[in-house]
Amino acid sequence: MTDLEIRPISNVLARKAKAELNENEKLIAGELEAIRTWMKQSEHIRGRNDDQFLIGFLRACKHSIQRVKEKMDIYYSIRSVLPEVMANRDPLDPFIRKVIKMGVSVPLPKTINPDDPKIMLIRGNAFDGDVCDFPDILKVFTMIGDVQFRDDDQLVICGETAIIDLGSSSSSHFFNFNISFLKKAAILNQQGCPLRQKGFHFINTPKGFDIVINVFKSLMTQKNRDKTIISHGSSLESLHKYFPKSILPTEYGGDLGPVQQFVDDWEQRLIDNRDYLIHDQSLGVDESKRRTTNPIAEEKDLFGTVGSFRKLELD
Predict the structure, then answer these.
(1) Can you give the pTM of this predicted structure?
(2) Is 307 exposed, middle or buried (0-12, 13-18, 19+ CB in 10 A)?
(3) Minimal CA–CA distance to 239: which of 166, 170, 173?
(4) Residue ranges of E strands in the chain
(5) Residues 6+ apart with CB under 8 A from 182
(6) Which parts of the sequence belong to the CRAL-TRIO domain (predicted)?
(7) What does the pLDDT look like over 35-85, one tens digit per residue?
(8) Are the beta carbons of 150 and 189 closer than 8 angstroms?
(9) Least confident of 205-209, 219-223, 309-313
(10) Rounded Cα gap, residues 180 and 195, in angstroms
């Protein structure tokens, strides 16, 4: 890959990419060119086409060109109809910064092995519904994810496991948002997200959790329903069977120190990537130039007819 602008990866990740993602170094240049040619010919996608971004999609789709086309089309189509998530991604905006500081989504820095899935900590009880709405939380979540997707080869190649801390939240806490929006968010984070989800671990589950988990599962693709979904109740001992203390923050019986330091780190990291995040607001689809069927057109109850997509495009 000497002529390509792609970060070199460790031998451990290279072996993983070859064994699990069908990566063949000799074929990458041709694969990237095929994707760029498709983007140019399709005309309707306004997207990034640099080597590093595109190889992330290739790895997410196990080097299937057809799957890349499908996922990338959904990736940009769904973003174009979620302005409440994709507009105003300025981490220095006072309101957005307040949501970032809330620290609902917190990537953890360590794993036991260098080819383990990365860990995303999601803290339900950090969500203050008096300060912001669920779409604002998802906005920050996607901002973090976009930076991770660009920068974190371990995450792209090995996937991500979520630890979801429901804290003192009641089940009603999770229904403060429109269920139609939640379905859109599910499409964004499953069919349209190039990050591969490996499992879900729930901790501090509240009364009524069965209702929440059933809704959670109903919004999943069959593929994600088959992933690891474990409820640890309020037992840190149970959590530690899967996540040793050495890779967890203090609040979860771990040795990494307080969660707040990682919230602060990511606040600064998003600020450092301000130009990148703001630029991505302009990416999406132009339905007037589309030659194929819109991949989310069948979701008429969520998005209306295909023609209505044009009204919601981001400039």
Answers:
(1) 0.86
(2) exposed
(3) 166
(4) 45-46, 105-108, 118-123, 160-165, 197-203, 228-231, 284-285
(5) 134, 219
(6) 161-260
(7) 999 999 988 999 999 999 999 999 999 999 999 999 999 888 887 778 888
(8) no
(9) 309-313
(10) 23
List, for residues 232-287, the tens digit of each pLDDT value: 888 899 999 999 999 999 999 999 999 999 999 999 999 999 999 999 888 888 88
pLDDT of 216:
63
Binned at pLDDT 50, 70 and 90, residue 185 comes out as low
Spatial neighbors of 141 by CB under 8 A, at least 6 apart, are 104, 105
Report phi then psi at 166, rounded to 5.
-85, -5
Residue 58 C-beta-side C-alpha neighbours within 13 Å: 26
Q: Which of 47, 46, 136 is nearest to 87 (CA)?
A: 136
CA atoms of 236 and 121, how far apart (whole Å): 14
Q: Which of 154, 170, 182, 239 is nearest to 208 (CA)?
A: 170
* Rounded Cα distance, 110 and 260, in Å: 16
Strand partners, 161: 119, 199
What is 266-312 written as a DSSP string? HHHHHHHTHHHHHHHTT-EE-GGG--S--TTTT-HHHH-SGGGGGGG
Reported as a pLDDT band with limits 50, 70 and 90, residue 297 is low
